[in-house]
Amino acid sequence: MSTWPSVDQALADMMAAVFAGHREKLAGATVVERGSDLWHQLAELGLLRLTGATGHGGSGAGWYEAAELMTAAVRSGIRIPLAEHDVLACWLLEAGGLAADRAPRTVCLVDGHGVATHVPWASTAERVVLVWRAGGQYRVTDVAAELLTITPGTNLIGEPRDTVAAELSGLRGTAIGPDLVSQLRLKSGLVRAIQVCAALDEILRLCIQHVTSRNQFGRPLSKFQGVAHLVSDVAAEAALARAATEAALTAGVTGKWSSPHLEFLVAAARSCAGHAASVVVRNAHQVHGAIGTTREHRLHEFTRAALAWRSEFGSMHYWDDVVADAAMHASAGGLWSLVTE
Fold first, then answer.
1. CA dist., res. 31 & res. 23, Å (int)
2. Where is the signal peptide (predicted)?
């Protein structure tokens, strides 16, 4: 599979090797990573705070490298809060002028009662970056997990998705602008689009591997026209999702996350990835037949992941509505520039 734009191939290979080696050490099982071994290894390699400024203990890399790291984890079936820690929680702390160490973190925006639901990895994090609105402005602070009330939950693939409750009256936070909160929303949405794309690419790889290696009536499955059509649709949908996600990622990076069209592009990426998942999952299981439903086969690692991730940090319906609203409110002749710029 191709790397994300501008990522050095040697770096991409190293990332893939780290996760593949960890999976092999765990006897090939998909794992929701709760231990410290991999976390410590990633920290030693400079991958844990990949996008952090070098002056704050980070590696000074960018979002393309972060996307490649997320992709490598997905391909190996390793579930770990890389994005939540690096490009979301620690980024927000750094943007707010606060320090962050290597302790596992996640981030959430709580409501007026101090509650947030479906927070990724809160029950396994050591610290939680809280964002809330008080006195007409947003505030952020870094809180030890044991000081919060965390009710565990999981998503479709067993990753922690928890309810977090905080006593806001006892919190003193740093004021941040609404632009950072908006960036947090868009970056969170883009993280899940990147992960869905990685899952779709792996599903395509498994489909190609299956239809070229399995024979029926004396010839490979790939030689049957109906099967070939199913796989070609998987390839087309995965490519569309990745193209839309790369466009949003490029706009975010080049525009320093302040491009006027960024919300539309992220929404389009999420919409394309979400709808692509429906086609890809359906076709992939048709191609694999009964073997694709077994626990031993890896297909379910990626099909269930794609379906779970497409509904997080905003549902498909939410992102579809953002795309539709942007198109409807584009000025005369503005729709074309919205799509092409």
1. 8
2. none
Question: Contact 110/164 with Cβ under 8 angstroms?
Answer: yes
Q: Phi and psi at residue 121, in whole multiples of 5°?
A: 70, 15
φ/ψ (deg, to 5) at 105: -130, 155
Give domain status of residue 307, yes or no.
yes
Among the three residues 80, 106, 133, which one is the final residue of a domain in this structure? Answer: 80
Instruction: Tell whether 132 and 187 lie within a shared domain.
Output: no
| Domain with 11 in it | 1-80
Q: Which pLDDT tens digit goes with each residue over 149-162?
A: 999 999 999 999 99
What strands lie across the sheet with 149-151, from one edge to the other? 115-120, 161-165, 149-151
What's the CATH code of the domain at 155?
2.40.110.10
Q: Tell me which DSSP letter residue 168 carries.
A: G
Amino acid at site 273: A
Specify the pLDDT at position 1: 55
pLDDT of residue 35: 54
Q: What was the pLDDT predicted at 62?
A: 95
Any domain includes 132:
yes
